[in-house]
Amino acid sequence: MSERISLLATERAEEWLLKPGVYFMQGNIASAEAALIAGCRFFAGYPITPSNEIAEHMSRRLPQVGGYFIQFEDEIASVNAIIGAAYGGVKSMTATSGPGFSLMQEAIGLAAMIEAPIVIVDVQRAGPSTGIPTLVGQGDIMQAKWGSHGDYEVVAYLPNSVQEMFDLTIEAFNTAWEYRVPVIVLADQSVGQMIERLRVPPLDEIKIVERKAPTVPPEEYLPFDSRYLVPPMAVAGEGYRFHVTSLLHTDKGYPTTSHEHSVKLITRLIRKIRENEKIIGRYEALALDDADLVVVAYGITSRSALRAVREARREGLKVGLFRPITAWPFPYWGLREAVDRGAKILVVEINMGQMVRVVREYYSNLVEIHFMPWAPGAVPRPHDILLKIKEVYGGE
Amino acid sequence: MPIRGRRPLNLSRFLKPVGRPAVNINVCKGCGFCIEFCPVGVLEFSDGVNVWGYQYPVVRRGMEYSCVNCGMCERVCPELAIEVVEEPSIPYEVRWVE
Amino acid sequence: MSSGLRLGLRTESIKSLLRLERFPHIWCPGCGIGTVVKCFAEAVLKSDIPVEKHVVVSGIGCTSRAPGYLKLDGFHVIHGRATPFAVGLKTVRQDLEVTVIAGDGDILAIGGNHFIHAIRRNDDINVILVNNFIYGMTGGQYGPTTTKGSVTTTSPYGYIEGSFNVPYLAAALGANFVARWTPLHTKELTAAMLEMFKVDGFAIIEVVSPCLIYGEMNNLPPLEVMKLFRDRTVIDHEADLSKIDIDLRNPGKPIVLGNFVKRSRPSYQTLVRELIKKARGR
């Protein structure tokens, strides 16, 4: 719609985007630049350590590409505003940390229910409550999936490097707009604030997914057409005159209390992601083929675990590393082969037990699942993980 | 509207607008606004009730030509239950009621 | 109200803007929201803005059910959050005319923070706040506009808190357009809505409405309240806003209506467009 685009003033936006090349960049900034490349033209946020760099960078860069930045009165306003922007057809995001993420939960349920594509970057910090604002935590894994009430699915990514902060933010937008689902980039303070090498590929090598618009005239359009797993999405102001409600609704979007519709809609919202979990879910597996012990770690912990696993191998222990790149859907199938061989599992995370519960859910009846909790506020050192590996490995 | 006291000398040159309130009986919820705010007092509650159990507005007997098509009932109704249909205007002389 | 504008509100003309298949609507006998919806439909049709560019956003509550009966792009979101949703939508789509239709509890209680900041920023949105002094949808609990002494389901001994004077609050915060009308004053209400669409900046119309639920507990049946709107209202556009709070049960206190405030502070959306031009070095 040329009129709408002109109000965004996005002509010549490409001139303002990050040029292809190699940079030495902070993780948070990389995520912000990736969002701009993915087409994000609206950021709403509220200051919270350690995600402030994203908001500050967006406040400077969005006007340059013709987008809008608003620092709202709180996180609740921010997340609701980006849902509104999504229904205006504009890619939008917010960035926060644990306490702000908790405030956003009701709206995440809204985004899931009305199938609004949004991206939330949660730069996790030590919790609970105010915790340690400036230090790392990984305590939002469960909240990302279960934080809101009712049944819904979200997608959550676990970057472990500045490069992944960049790549996974772009992928987050693609997933959100392809599946009409809220997507969370579950970064942590270490990955968000570290400064590392970043490679930005040429723009034509980057896959960008756009909204699937309706193909039928307005009279025939059903905003939540259950004949599709992911219904085409109309946006406001284009003549579709559709109704969206956070109440349980029919395909036409009208409120209903009928159980038949509850079955239809809720099942579809779940199936939308679960039936595509093997496409959406991602993981990285290292030295799994002959491993007797698989270390499961993500985010900054996986960097430490990688060193520990290499050390263990040098000492002759057959240890592998399984690194989930999506927390949700959890890529359980990546562990299957090792589990079938009877490998033990050791989950290491900077919390008192979150992802380990998911692993147990799938495999506790088949293999021993060990757990190394780590109180938030620091990264377990490779040495700490190696000691635990030896303890678990030796216990055969 | 009854004209008290003064009566324009050329009243015969004017026609009184006439309307006919048309009630969508089973949409009415019996709030009574139309009855209260009709400037002429043309409406009253029915004796019977509609399918939901609400009394609905009916035109008072003898006031079939008194409605002046002002549309107030239609405007103030929260339900879309009453509309006024325009009828042919009539001379004041015939239906001027004191 | 311009004399050239015929505001007849013939129902036939607004039917094209209503989702008739969903009528009769859910509101109680005597509720004013149905009339507000009709006036809004008329205003939309008579505005210079194409119908498809009008968007309505609402939160949760009786009034917030209104978008479900209007044949416009409508978003019935979560309690109290219609305002930020509308701000996000309007900022990225300034070609749209965005109106929030919600109740006193939704906008002023849970949505209170968003309300004051949207006015502070002077976001270019319209708000139709239907004030029935109660939380109707949930059965009749008190809210931030309930009058002292009222009996509600959560104030069985009488309400002891103070209540907001909505036009005073909105004007003090800096809204560009503030008005108050009732469902009886359909012509003035529709005219105010038309004015509201033309305002660049935050515009709010408080519609004081009868409520069957509130009325049952406080001896104020809707028909009696409508009669109050006829007999005990005063139209004073220059009123001293600090004195126009409402107490339906006090026979000595008139209900003051009018188009109180008309300012032209630049809207946030206008300012941000200028900011973008500056950032891009034009």
Would you identify the regions of chain A where 5 or more consecutive residues have pLDDT less than 50? 1-7
Which range does the strand content of chain A fall in? Answer: 15-25%
What is the H-and-E element order of chain B?
Answer: EHEEHEH
Percent in helix of chain B: 10-25%
Shape of chain A: globular
Task: Pick out the low-confidence regions of chain B.
Answer: none
Describe it for me?
- The complex is a heterotrimer of chains A (396), B (98) and C (282).
- Chain A is of the alpha/beta class and 396 residues long.
- Chain A has 2 domains: 204 residues, Rossmann fold (3-Layer(aba) Sandwich), CATH 3.40.50.970; 112 residues, Rossmann fold, CATH 3.40.50.920.
- In chain A, 40% of the residues lie in helices and 20% in strands.
- Chain A is built from 16 helices and 16 strands.
- In chain A, strands 2, 3, 4, 5, 6, 7, 8 and 14 form an 8-stranded mixed β-sheet that branches.
- In chain A, helix 13 links the parallel strand 12 and strand 13.
- The longest helix of chain A is centred in the middle third of the chain and has 18 residues.
- The N terminus of chain A is likely disordered.
- With 98 residues, chain B is α+β, with helices and mostly antiparallel strands.
- Chain B has a single domain, classed as 2-Layer Sandwich (Alpha-Beta Plaits).
- Helices cover 14% and strands 26% of the residues of chain B.
- Chain C is an alpha/beta fold and 282 residues long.
- Chain C has 10 helices and 8 strands.
- Chain C has an 8-stranded mixed β-sheet with strand order 2-1-3-4-6-5-8-7, with helices on both faces.
- In chain C, strand 5, helix 7 and strand 6 form a beta-alpha-beta unit.
- The radius of gyration of chain C is 18 Å and the shape is globular.
- The termini of chain C are far apart.
- In chain C, 59% of the residues are buried.
- The N terminus of chain C is likely disordered.
- Chains in contact: A-C, B-C.
- The interface between A and C is large, with 50 and 45 residues.
